Amino acid sequence: MNSIPEKIIIELDNIINIAFKYRNNSISESFFLDIMQSIKANKNQETIYREYILSKCVEITKDDDIDETDESIDITVKIKPYDTANIDITPKQPTIGNITERLRNDEIDLLPEFQRRADLWTDQQKSQLVESLILKIPLPAFYFDGSNDEKWIVIDGLQRLSALKNFFVDKNLALSGLEFLTDLNGAKIDDLPRAYSRRMMETQVMAYIINPGAPINLKYNIFKRINTGGLRLEPQEIRHALYQGYATQYVKELAEILIFREATGYSIKTERMLDREFVLRFIAFYEQELKDYNGSIEIFLNNAMDIINNKYDPNINKNYSENIKNVFINILNLSYYLFGNFAFRKMPDEEKRRPISKALFETWTSCLAKLTNDEIIMLKENKILLIHKYIRMNKDDNEFIESLSSAKISSVKKRFESIQKLIMEVLNNVNTD
To answer: Beta-carbon neighbour count of residue 359 at 10 Å?
Structure first.
């Protein structure tokens, strides 16, 4: 231990102090590794420093499960730790001219499916942005995913970019509500003095570009943290931006199937892509083993988008996507037959319909999809017993009820085991009540 430099000892003692003061005598593995990277420790030094920390009775633990509430309660997505070496963001200072050229040539993706939110600003707000440029008032920084240099994806700055496009490219914005340059009210870009238009074109702005090679889940979480637009993007909207390809088309197609809307009681909103997230949850748990779920529903769903892009495309796997679509339709029909308007909801013993549950949707659809044709027929024949037992489970099984409001590994495992056990009891015609 004496070979550790004094300044490193100070750093390690700070970590130990945090462990004793805030972490019940422990630190997470990711926190330790991040510190090792920050002090540029090699593998041999890392081992020595680890032993030093352990010698002080501090445990280095695996990262905790991620907890997440169900859709009926606000969702707060927890960010899993990452190796900071993978966060490769380059600051650039393009001019407004550079930005507008990209907009003019469709080299910045303004997320066409989100255009409703790409134009939230009033003409006065857009005009005051233009006025700020003329007055040389700095604009807030822009953030882009630059994985494809031919087409940047907007992470933050959608409203400002939309305003710039309206004024400089589309030329359909007439200035209004200006505070200082009131002489320009009513003017469009081609009406401005050359001195003003040149000044704006030459104005530099700050832009942060996420470089190619960043892990997709890392980009997802950067996107989620940085995006601060007038209406923050929902998780599925971010996936739509980052996983362009067959997946975006396919989940949209399945979300528009009539039986999906009927079985979910027409209660899932479509304008923020929540309906597509429900579809994706079925695919995620259908395609991936439950044992591979690591506690992050966000990463699990991101992986599912990747699976669709690489496995479902008819050019890759001719009939696969159509087969899964048919499975999805059959399971929705079965669910609607069994539970009617109570499908994918907690079932009380009185006629009161509860909110639809993401947790129940992903669990029931995935479990039912694994049944054989004979088992499906038998389940239909024992529909009354199934409903009776399901109501009882919703009323008396507190562990099952609690499992619906968390995305911890133990909770997801519990609800799958409970539904699978219920189905098997009904198939075996076992009435334990």
So the answer is: 25
Q: How far is CA 312 from CA 7, 276, 287, 318, in A?
A: 54, 16, 11, 8
pLDDT digits 0-9 by tens, 50-95: 999 999 999 988 754 433 445 433 334 444 555 666 678 899 999 9
- What band does 425 get if pLDDT is binned at 50, 70 and 90? very high
* Amino acid in the structure at residue 181: L
Work out the widest C-alpha separation in the chain, in whole angstroms: 84
At residue 2, the 3 state secondary structure works out as coil
Q: Which CA distances in Å does 239 have to 200, 223, 244, 305, 339? A: 34, 10, 8, 8, 31
Q: Identify the helix (H) or strand (E) that includes residue 235.
A: helix 235-242
**Residues 335/365, Cβ–Cβ less than 8 Å:** yes
C-alpha distances out from residue 318 to 135, 279, 313, Å:
58, 21, 7
- Is the C-alpha dihedral spanning 189, 192, 197, 199 positive or negative? negative
Residue 4 DSSP label: S
Mean residue pLDDT of the chain comes to 87
The residues spanned by each domain of the chain are 6-61, 88-213, 231-427
Using CA atoms, how far apart are residues 244 and 111, in angstroms rounded to an integer?
Answer: 11
| Average pLDDT score over residue span 400-423 | 93
Rounded CA separation 431/417 (Å): 18
Phi, psi of 26 (to 5 degrees): -145, 160
Alpha helices by DSSP H, listed for 288-408, are 297-307, 320-339, 358-369, 373-381, 383-396, 398-403
Q: CA 383 to CA 398: how far, in whole Å? A: 23
φ, ψ of residue 28 to 5 degrees: the values are -85, 155
d(CA 74, CA 184) in angstroms, rounded, equals 45
Tokens 């009435």 — which residue?
431
Confidence of residue 270 (pLDDT cuts 50, 70, 90): confident
Q: Any bridge partners for residue 204, and if so which?
A: 95
**Closest by CA position to 280, among listed 258, 320, 319, 309:** 309
The tokens of 160 are what?
Answer: 């400002």
> Pick from 425, 350, 429, 336: which is nearest to 391 by CA?
350
Structure tokens at 222: 């950067």
DSSP structure class, residue 84: G
What kind and span of H or E run contains 263? Answer: helix 258-263
The rounded distance, in Å, linking the Cα atoms of 279 and 233 is 18
From the DSSP assignment, how many helices (H) and strands (E) are in the chain? 19, 7
